[in-house]
């Protein structure tokens, strides 16, 4: 343990540190609410695939350590009937030190998810394959664009919540 702390201190003296410490499949859910009927009925139309993503970074109790969770949800429907729904949460624990607060936020929302995401893709693809339904592969994700979009939404919400004080004769 002392050696580990010594290595950490020398790394901080040598410059910035961004290092994946652990990657793990945190949670998985698979629902096939209409099985086995979905296997016996012929699909009359092409199923609709909806894929949603979310990135959730958080600082851990250990200084300079963060958990980044990437959640992917795949919902496949035919005629408004859910054929299957798969949700997976892939997480990584990252050590980040010697970097400013703004750059750390950027790393946690862009760089770290891009490291964790390929593991999520593989795990979700494996779950879907096990349903014996046609495969659905998660697409490449531009985490930079998602982060910038989220920042713009937060700024817009902040601006809209700051409303000028109404002038007029109100009753007290």
Automatic annotation (TrEMBL):
SUPFAM superfamilies: SecB-like (SSF54611)
InterPro entries hit by this protein: SecB, SecB-like_sf
GO CC, alphabetical: cytoplasm
Chief location category: cytoplasm
GO molecular function: unfolded protein binding
GO biological process, one term: protein folding
Family in the record: Belongs to the SecB family.
Purpose of the protein: One of the proteins required for the normal export of preproteins out of the cell cytoplasm. It is a molecular chaperone that binds to a subset of precursor proteins, maintaining them in a translocation-competent state. It also specifically binds to its receptor SecA.
Annotated protein name in UniProt: Protein-export protein SecB
């Amino acid at each position: 343990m002392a050696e580990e702390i010594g290595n950490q201190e020398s790394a901080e003296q040598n410059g910035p540190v961004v290092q994946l410490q652990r990657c793990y499949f945190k949670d998985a859910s698979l629902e096939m609410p209409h099985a086995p009927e979905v296997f016996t009925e012929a699909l009359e139309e092409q199923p609709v695939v909806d894929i949603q993503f979310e990135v959730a970074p958080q600082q851990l109790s250990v200084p300079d350590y963060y958990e980044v969770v990437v959640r992917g949800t795949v919902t496949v429907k035919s005629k408004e009937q859910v054929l299957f729904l798969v949700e997976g949460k892939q997480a990584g624990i990252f050590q980040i030190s010697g970097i400013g607060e703004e750059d750390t936020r950027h790393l946690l929302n862009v760089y770290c998810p891009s490291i964790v995401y390929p593991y999520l893709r593989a795990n979700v693809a494996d779950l879907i394959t096990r349903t014996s339904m046609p495969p659905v592969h998660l697409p490449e994700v531009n985490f930079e664009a998602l982060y910038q979009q989220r920042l713009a939404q937060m700024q817009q919400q902040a601006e809209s919540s700051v409303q000028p004080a109404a002038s007029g004769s109100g009753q007290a």
